[in-house]
Design goal:
homotetramer; 366 residues; alpha/beta; 15 strands
C-alpha cells in the first residue's frame, strides 16, 4: 500500500480546488507535487499559496510526470472529459469535480477510459460527505424509515458570484458551452447524487426550467423536476441560483418512509437532521435531532473545518484514507458521475420536450 | 342585509360538516334549521348533537324549504354536483366542500348553475383560513418577496382512517368513483388552491402518482407534480396519504422570491411562518417568525379553537360575516373550485400520459 | 359516588372563573347552580352568560344551600381564607384559585379548617395540567434524567392589564393588600408549585425583587430567586410582569439530571418539550421533541381548547373526574398551596433581609 | 506601531494555549518565539507542533528575552499572579487566561503591577468574541431592548475531562488550590464577564454551590446565583460541570428589556441569537434570528474556524489587530478580570455565609 499520495492539480477554474488543496495540506503523506492552469496568474498564485514548486500552463506535461499518483481536475466542466481521459491513459488515478462532464456521451467515454486503464476514477460528490448527509445515510441504513415513499430535495444558492466565487468562475459557469447549463446541472448534480445514494436509482423524470432573475445567464436559474425511482417511490427536486435567503448553499432533503421520516438541512447556519420514528413508545414519540457536530468522538476538535465547508475536508480525508489503505473505489465513482449526468440530461430533455423521459441504464462492462 | 343565516346541511359524509356545525353554533344570527343525510343514524345523531329539530333522509326536501337561506354540502365528492346544482336552482346560496366535484365537467355545470341562479357559490377551501396562511397572504401582499421564482408545497397525512375519521368516510374517500381519486385530489386540492391564491394561476403541469403503502385504496397514496405558473415561475407539489410523521395534516409551503422567502408550517404541533427579507439592515437580517397565535388583538382569547382546526371557525366566521354584510362573494368561489379541479384533472392526465398538460382556462361568461 | 357535581362559584374577580365556568359547561354531570359576586354587574353578567339562575351578592348565602357540593373561589387573594374556611365549615368541598392566600398563616388556617371538615380542599395549580407539564412529569417519572442536579424556571408575562385581563382585576392584583405582592406571588406561585411537583420540596431560598417598569404597581414586577432543594439539588426562579416578548405567559422550565435533561416551553405559540437522553445509541443521541398536541389518542379532536388555555379544561376535567369517581384528593391540595405560599413568603423575607431563608416544614396533623 | 508581534507562551497547562497558538500561526506578523512549560514533555511537544525553536522549563528566562513583546499565560490559575506580575515588571504586555487569579487580592496585585509597568494587561475573556456574543452586543447597543429588567445565564458542560481535555488539566482544575474552585469560578467567569459587558456592573449577589455528581472533585459541580446590577436590574446565573446534554459548552444568555428581548445560544451545535422587538409593525412582529455565520462579508470563508471554537481565532485576531495598530487596551483588561473575580469571590462568600454580599468596587488609581 502506498505511503504517500503525490497529487497533480489541473486548473483552479473551480474554487473547490482551493478547498481540496487546503484539505490535502492537512493530511499526512499527501502533497501536491505540481499544479497546472491555463490562467497563469491564477495558477501561479495557488502554487505560491500552497508552496508547490512546479507550476505549468500545460496540463499535459503534468500527466507525463512519474511522481504524480493522482490527478485532480477542477477545470471548466466541458474540459473534464479530455483531461480525465488523458490522465487515465497515463495511468493516473483521477478525481474529477462534479458534474464530471457536460454530456452523458463524454461521461461515458471517461468511464470507459478509466475502466480500461484500471485506475480509480472518483467523482467529487462532496455533498455525500457533510456530517448531516452521513447521518441521513446511517438513518436510512438503520431501517427505521421502512419503505421509502417520497423524497423532496431543494438545493439552492444566491448565485455563483453572489456567494463570493471569483468573477471568472461565475463567467464560465454562466456559459452553457463550458458549464453545461445553469442551476439544474450545477446544483441538481448534488441533489440527484444524494438521492441516488440514499433512495436508489431514478427511472423517469419530468422537469421545467426557466430563467427568472439572472439576465446575464444563458442557462436556467430555476428548475424543478418530478421523478419516479426504480423502486416505484416518487420524488421532487428543486434547484435555484437566485435564492434570497441568507448566503451560501441551502441543501435540504426530506425522505418519507412507511414507518419514519427524516429531514436534513446541510450547509446551513443551523445544520441539522431531524428524524421521526413511529416505533418509539408514546412518551418518546416525536422528532429527534441527533447530535452531529461536534461529535462525541471529536470533543473540542479544533482541527475540523467550519460546518458549511467541513465536507470538503471529510471528502478528501476519506478519499486519501481509502487510497492509502487500498480500498477501491476511493470514493463515489465516475459511474456515479455518469448516472447522475444521465438524469440531469434527461431532465433537460424532459423540460425541452414536455414529455416524461426514461432514464437509460448506463451500459456496464461484462 | 339579512339579520339571520338559516342553514340547511346536506350530509355528514365528510366530518368537516361537524366542524362547521360547531362554528355555526358559536356565531350569533346563524343556525342550522334542517339536516339531511341518507345515513339516517349518522344524520339523526348530528341533528341531536346540534339541537336541530328537522332531520330528513331526503335532501331534495331541504331545498324546498323557504326558511333555508344557505345550503352546505358535505356529501361524497361525486354527489356534490347534483346537489349544488339543485340548490342553486332552488335559489339557495351554496357552500360546497372541496373538491367541489370529481370532474371538471361537473364543476363547470355547477359554476354555470350558480351563475344562472345569481346566488353565491362558495368552495370550502378552508386552508386559506388558517392564521398561518393568512399571514403568508399578507407577507406576499406586502411586496417584500419581490417576484416569485419558485414555490414548494407538501400536503400530507397518515391516512383518512389513521387520523381518526370515521370508517365510512375513509371508505368512500378510498373509492375513486365517489372520492374522485386518492391523495392527489384530496390533499392536492388544498395545496393547489393555496398556490393559486398566493402565487397565481397555473399554466402547465407534469405529475407522477403511485400507491406505495395503502393496499386497500384504489387511488394513489403518493403524488408529485411540477408546475409552471402563468407568470413563468415554477413550483412543486407533493401529497401523500401515507405520511409517517406524527398525526394530523402537514401543510408546508415555501415561496422563494427575488428579494425574500417565506416558509409556512400550518396545522402543525408548532405552527409557524418564517420570513426572510433581504431589505433589512445587516444587524437584523435573518429569519423572522411573526407572532401568529394568540394575536395581540385577541389576548387570552378562550373562544378560539385549537390551532389544528381553528381555520374551520375562521372560515365559517368570515363566510357568515360577508353574508350578513352583503359582500359578494362570501368566500372562495366555485370558479376557484373549478380552476383547482382543472389542475387536479390535468395532473391525473399528465401522470397517465407522461406528457406535460396545459391547463385549460375555464370558460367565463360574457 | 356522586352522579352530579353542583357547584357554587364565589366571585368573578379573577378571570380564571370564566375559564372554569366554560370547562364546567362542557362536562356532563357538572353544573353551576349559583354564583355570588360583590360586583353585582360583573356577577350577574357571568350568571347570564352561563345560564345560571341564582345570582347573589352575598357569598355566605351560597354556602347555606344544600344543592351546592363544591365551592369554587375566585375572589381577590386576600379574601380566599375567609371564604374557604367558611365553605369548609359548611361541609363543602372547596376549589381555590392560587395563591390560596396572601400569608402562610391564612393558608395554615385554611388547611386546618378543611382538614377538620373532612372535605376536599384543592388548590388551583392549573400549570400542572398543561400537556407540556404532564409530559415533563412523565419524563421525570421514567427515570431517564437520573438524579436532578439543577432546575431553571422562568414565568413571565407583559402585565396583567397588558395581556387583556379586565382593569379591575389588574387593579386588585396590583394592590399588595389584596393580591399579596406582585409578580413573585402571582407568577412565582406557578413556578414554585411546578418545581415542587417535579423536583421535590424546597429547603432554602434567597431572592431579589424590584419594580423596574410598572410605576402604577406597589409590588415587584421582577423577582429572581435561588433555591436549594431538600435533595440538595439547586435551582433558579425568575418571574416578571414586564416581559417584552409577544403576548401571554411564558412558562419555561429546565431540569438537568445526571443522565438527561428536559426543557419545557408551555403556554407558548410553539409549545414544546425537549428531552436529551444519554442512554441512546450514538445514531439517535440528541434532543427529542415528543408529540404532544394533538395526541395520538385524540386525533382531529375538535373539542379541546387552544393550547395557551387548554390546561384549564384539563384541570377541571381531572378534578371532576376524581370527584365523580371518589378518588381523594381531587387535585393539588391546600397543603400544596400552603407549601408553595411558604416558599413565596420566604422569598419575600429573603429579599427584604438579604439572608438565606430556611423553608419551614408545614405542621402536619397527627 | 509595531510590525511584528513576538510572543512568549508560558505553560500549556490549559488547552486554550493550543487554540491560541493555532490562531497566532494564522496571523501575519505574529509568531511564537519561545515556549516555557514546567511539564517538559508537554511543552516540548507544543514547541514541535508549532515549530518554535526555543523551549525552556524555566518561565523566568522567557521574560528576560528582548525578542518577546507579549507574554501569554496559560498556567494553572493559582500561578497566573506570579507570572503576570513578573512579566509586567519585565516590561512585557501580558495576555492572561481567565480567571486571571484565584483570589481578588492576587488579581489586585496583578492590576497594579501592569499599571505600574505601563504595558497592556489583557484578560482572556474569549466568550465575548463568539459571533453570537458580538451580535448580542450590537443588539444591546442598538437600544431596541429599552431598559434592561432581567438577565438569565447558563454556562455548563459535561465536565473538564468529559469534553476531552487532557487528564492533567482536569486534575489541576479539580484542585481548588490550583483552580480556585469548581464550576462556579471556571464557567461562572465566562457568564459574569459577559453579563458585565452586556448589562453592566453587578452590585449584590446571593448564591448556592454544591457537588452532586463529581465525587472526585473537591469543588462544586453546580452553582446558582441571583444578582442585582448597579442599575437595579436583576439576574440569575447557573453553572455546572455535570451537564447531560450533548458535549461541549452550553453558553445560554437571555436579556429582557422594557421594549425587547434577546436570547443567545453560543458554542452550540445550532448556535443562534433570537431577538424580539416590540417596535415592529404587526405583520413583522415576532422573533428574528439574525444571520450570523457565515456572515455576508465572508462568503465561502474557508479560513474561519468551526463555530464551537471560532471565538478563539476572533479573540486573538482582535487582540493582535489592536496591538499592531496601537489601540489600547488590546482586549478586555485585567481590571475586567479583577472585577469578574470579585463577583466570583462574593458568590463563594455568599454561598458559604448565606447572606447577600455587596460587591466591593475595585480601587482605582488616581
Amino acid at each position: 500500500m502506498p505511503d504517500e499520495a503525490r497529487i497533480g492539480m489541473i486548473s483552479w477554474a473551480h474554487v473547490h480546488a482551493e478547498f481540496r488543496a487546503r484539505a490535502i495540506s492537512e493530511i499526512p503523506g499527501a502533497r501536491i507535487v505540481a499544479i497546472s492552469d491555463d490562467d497563469e496568474t491564477r495558477g501561479q498564485r495557488a502554487a505560491d499559496r500552497w508552496q508547490v514548486q512546479d507550476f505549468t500552463t500545460d496540463w499535459t506535461s503534468l500527466l507525463k510526470r512519474e511522481d504524480v499518483d493522482i490527478v485532480m481536475v477542477h477545470s471548466e466542466n466541458a474540459r473534464h472529459a479530455e483531461q480525465v481521459i488523458a490522465a487515465a491513459r497515463a495511468g493516473k488515478h483521477v478525481f474529477c469535480e462534479k458534474p464530471i462532464a457536460t454530456t452523458p456521451a463524454d461521461a461515458q467515454r471517461m468511464v470507459e477510459a478509466v475502466r480500461a486503464a484500471g485506475t480509480d476514477g472518483t467523482a467529487a460528490f462532496v455533498s455525500r460527505f457533510s456530517k448531516e448527509a452521513s447521518q441521513v445515510k446511517s438513518v436510512v441504513g438503520s431501517g427505521v424509515l421502512g419503505d421509502i415513499l417520497l423524497t423532496r430535495s431543494l438545493i439552492g444558492l444566491a448565485g455563483i458570484a453572489e456567494i463570493g466565487c471569483p468573477p471568472e468562475m461565475a463567467a464560465w459557469m454562466s456559459d452553457p458551452a463550458l458549464g453545461g447549463g445553469g442551476a439544474w446541472i450545477d446544483e441538481g448534480s448534488h441533489g440527484i447524487d444524494l438521492l441516488r445514494w440514499l433512495a436508489g436509482d431514478i427511472a423517469e423524470i419530468t422537469a421545467f426550467t426557466t430563467n427568472r432573475a439572472k439576465p446575464g445567464l444563458d442557462g436556467e436559474d430555476v428548475a424543478v423536476a418530478s421523478i419516479r425511482y426504480v423502486t416505484g417511490a416518487l420524488g421532487e427536486i428543486a434547484t435555484t441560483w437566485s435564492m434570497s435567503a441568507d448566503i451560501g448553499m441551502r441543501n435540504w432533503l426530506e425522505i418519507y418512509g412507511t414507518t419514519g421520516t427524516v429531514l436534513m438541512r446541510a450547509t446551513d447556519p443551523q445544520p441539522r437532521v431531524e428524524v421521526y420514528r413511529s416505533d418509539q413508545p408514546e412518551l418518546w414519540r416525536g422528532w429527534t435531532t441527533p447530535d452531529i457536530a461536534p461529535q462525541s468522538t471529536e470533543p473540542h476538535d479544533y482541527t475540523s473545518w467550519p460546518p458549511h465547508i467541513h465536507h470538503y475536508k471529510r471528502e478528501v480525508a476519506s478519499y486519501l484514507n481509502r487510497y492509502f489503505t487500498g480500498r477501491r473505489p476511493f470514493g463515489p465513482t465516475l459511474e456515479d458521475g455518469l448516472a447522475c449526468l444521465t438524469v440531469i440530461d434527461a431532465g433537460y430533455r424532459a423540460a425541452a420536450a414536455g414529455t416524461r423521459q426514461l432514464i437509460p441504464i448506463p451500459r456496464r462492462s461484462p
